[in-house]
């Protein structure tokens, strides 16, 4: 039986100094809002103070730094799980004879970083980043949930392919990201990046931190729109 759970954690995705600077800026921000779930503000499901930084000129530098860290992690993830691209999209590339041929998982080990980066950017796009602050003994996201749901007419929330969380601090007890079916708890470590699938198979929750506040950055990696991938019908 395989022990593959499709949950990857990459240490030192962001430096401890960068993480501390982000936490400090967040603590002094006047833009914090009550944490939201798909259906709105429900503190019984998720209790946090959140700050969406994507699209904010004041936070552009942090947004870019985080997106670069996540993209580097994504490339590592695709090296291990090329099926994340080729299974849903049935990708084709020009063969040596100039005719299109299907990409297979065997093509990925020899693919250079630039080619893999171009492929990832062609098929996938970053989601908006949300910074989240969970207060010790009170904050958390204890409701078992996944990241896919048919919320909007555009299907945007159904384009979420992978979830990610970058832990901005540690030094507290508990506060793990816990996956239900995999029976796995990921302990926060400053600068580490968690990537996992978004579907119900990876139902998860954020346990309450104890003895100290927990700070994270989080978002999704989404498929490009159908228009971008396939053109207008």
- Supply Rg: 18 Å
Q: Please report the number of helical segments.
A: 5
Low-confidence parts, pLDDT < 50 over ≥5 residues?
Answer: none
- Separation, N- and C-terminal Cα atoms: 43 Å
Arithmetic mean of pLDDT: 94
Globally, the shape reads globular
InterPro entries: Pro_4_hyd_alph, Pro_4_hyd_alph_FE2OG_OXY
Keywords: Dioxygenase, Oxidoreductase
EC number: 1.14.11.-
Organism: Stenotrophomonas capsici
Q: What does the model show?
A:
The chain is an alpha+beta fold and 233 residues long. Helix content is 24%, strand content 27%. It has five helices and 16 strands. The strands form four sheets. Strands 1, 2, 3, 6, 7, 9, 13 and 16 form an eight-stranded antiparallel beta sheet that branches. A four-stranded antiparallel beta sheet has the order 8-14-11-12, with no helix packed on it. A two-stranded antiparallel ribbon has the order 4-5. A hairpin with a 5-residue loop joins strand 4 and strand 5. It is globular, with a radius of gyration of 18 Å. It starts with 7 loop residues before the first strand and ends with a helix. The model has no long low-confidence stretch (mean pLDDT 94). This is 2OG-Fe(II) oxygenase. Pfam families: 2OG-FeII_Oxy_3 (PF13640). Its cofactor is L-ascorbate. Keywords: Dioxygenase, Oxidoreductase. It comes from Stenotrophomonas capsici.
């Amino acid at each position: 039986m395989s022990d593959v759970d499709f949950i990857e954690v990459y240490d030192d995705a962001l430096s401890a100094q960068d993480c501390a600077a982000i936490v400090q800026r967040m603590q002094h921000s006047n833009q914090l809002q009550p944490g939201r779930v798909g259906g709105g503000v429900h503190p019984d499901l998720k209790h946090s103070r959140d700050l969406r930084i994507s699209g904010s000129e004041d936070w552009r530098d942090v947004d870019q730094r985080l997106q670069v860290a996540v993209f580097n992690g994504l490339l590592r993830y695709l090296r291990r799980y090329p099926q994340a691209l080729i299974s849903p999209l049935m990708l084709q590339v020009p063969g040596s004879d100039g005719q299109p041929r299907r990409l297979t998982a065997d093509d990925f080990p020899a693919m250079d970083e630039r080619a893999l980066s171009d492929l990832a950017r062609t098929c996938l796009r970053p989601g908006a980043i949300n910074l989240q602050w969970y207060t010790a003994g009170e904050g958390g996201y204890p409701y078992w949930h996944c990241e896919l749901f048919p919320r909007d007419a555009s299907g945007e929330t159904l384009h979420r392919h992978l979830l990610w969380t970058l832990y901005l601090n540690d030094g507290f007890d508990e506060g793990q990201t816990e996956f239900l079916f995999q029976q796995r708890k990921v302990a926060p470590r400053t600068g580490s990046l968690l990537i996992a699938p978004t579907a119900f198979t990876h139902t998860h929750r954020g346990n309450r931190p104890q003895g100290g506040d927990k700070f994270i950055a989080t978002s999704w990696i989404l498929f490009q729109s159908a228009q971008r991938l396939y053109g207008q019908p």
